[in-house]
Amino acid sequence: MTLKNYLVVMLTLSAICWGIFFFIATLVDPLTTNWLGFLLFYASLFAALSGSIALLGFFLRFIVRKKDLAFNLVRTAFRQSFLLSLFIISLLILKSQNLFNGLNLALLIVIFTIAELFLGSFKKSYNPKS
Predict the structure, then answer these.
(1) Which of 47, 116, 126, 127 is the most buried (most CB within 10 A)?
(2) Contact 98, 116 (CB under 8 A)
(3) Does the pLDDT at position 46 exceed 90?
(4) In the chain, how many domains are there?
């Protein structure tokens, strides 16, 4: 897949995910819905955020780091968008359950920082030829 095809597909899918999210957000009443309504709401928001942040992260990296390979920029942007979207969804779930406070925020930051450091260094230390 070429970079142009990837960008077109990601932009199209992100727009579709945002449309699905807005449809679900208008359809689901948070006071009367069950767990399935919340699952659809958070899953569609996660997908929309992941795609949008991945595109934004790629474009910012592409502008700043022009000498790096596009594949590496895409991989890094997608990994970080996945983690950032998961972080945002986690914060929203904590807020909806009235569990959001400074300690939980600090714990989430530590957990996601460790996850990013682990995932970012995992590929670099892996050598299949040895």
Answers:
(1) 47
(2) no
(3) yes
(4) 1
- What pLDDT is attached to residue 45? 96
Q: How far from 123 is each of 45, 51, 76, 102, 126, CA to CA, in Å?
A: 28, 22, 11, 33, 5
Residue ranges making up the domain that contains 36: 3-125
Q: Are 42 and 92 in contact (CB under 8 A)?
A: yes
Assigned domain for 36 exists? yes
91 φ, ψ (degrees, to nearest 5): -65, -40
Answer yes or no: is pLDDT of 124 > 80: no
How many whole angstroms separate alpha carbon 117 and alpha carbon 111?
Answer: 10
Tell me whether residue 49 is in a domain: yes
